[in-house]
UniProtKB/TrEMBL annotation:
This is Uncharacterized protein. It comes from Artemia franciscana. GO terms for biological process: DNA biosynthetic process.
């Protein structure tokens, strides 16, 4: 256990920060208040200011920063801190080998009344109006939003010179979904959207099956290799 933090005041520096004075060593430390942090963090440089020759016992614990960077934990210590009516509380601090600013985790910051979470529910009076407008638009353009649309004419895909055909292997489908997938393919065939072929072809594209929350299936063509060789036409508007 190291000293007692008995003086604390907050001010705006570069975000949420707290200046903590450690009386026994006449030392001021600026802690960053991080609501996302799950641990109190103290760099080794600041720890050595309190204890010039610390006996560090490396820990197997793993800490990571908000960016995913792994922090080397040199030791885990206990600090007794006090502030106003929040006194003589002992919390763990992880001593890390980095140049990070000291960090106070959310729980410690809340206990010290440095931050407060407020849940506020608001009512948007414009929501019903927006729903009415959406309903009117869907009714007006039913032919666009209902059924399967079809554009006139035929589309021809132009490939770059030297395009290498690819035969993609079919992706695996869970046994529990195979029957529903077959039903969906048969439905698309009956509607004239797709057709079976027995002729040889240079290109074979796999499909991606999306399982919807309502237990239906959406089938998408996945021509990932074909798209690499497609010529893009630029049309002037």
């Amino acid at each position: 256990m190291i000293n007692t933090v008995n003086s604390l005041q907050t001010q705006h520096l570069d975000g949420l920060n707290a200046i903590i004075r450690i009386v026994d060593h006449n030392l001021n430390l600026v802690f960053k208040i991080d609501p996302r942090a799950k641990a109190n963090v103290l760099p080794t440089s600041d720890y050595r200011c309190m204890v010039p020759k610390p006996q560090l016992q490396p820990s197997r614990g793993v800490l990571r920063s908000n960016t995913g960077e792994k922090l080397e934990v040199m030791s885990i210590i206990q600090l007794q801190i006090s502030y106003k009516d929040w006194e003589n509380q002992i919390h763990l601090f992880y001593v890390v080998n980095s140049d990070y600013k000291p960090i106070l985790r959310r729980k410690t910051s809340q206990d010290m009344k440095l931050i407060k979470f407020i849940l506020n529910l608001t009512h948007n009076s414009s929501a019903p109006m927006m729903r009415n407008e959406t309903t009117k638009m869907l009714d007006k353009y039913k032919d666009v939003y209902e059924g399967v649309g079809k554009l006139p004419g035929k589309c021809k895909i132009h490939l770059q010179e030297g395009a290498v055909p690819t035969l993609q292997l079919p992706k695996r489908v869970l046994f529990a979904h195979q029957e529903k997938l077959k039903e969906e393919l048969d439905c698309l065939e009956s509607m004239g959207i797709i057709e079976k072929t027995s002729r040889p072809t240079k290109w074979v594209n796999s499909i991606a099956v999306v399982h919807e929350p309502n237990e239906s299936h959406t089938i998408c063509l996945d021509p990932v290799d074909l798209k690499k060789w497609v010529q893009c036409h630029c049309w002037t508007m």
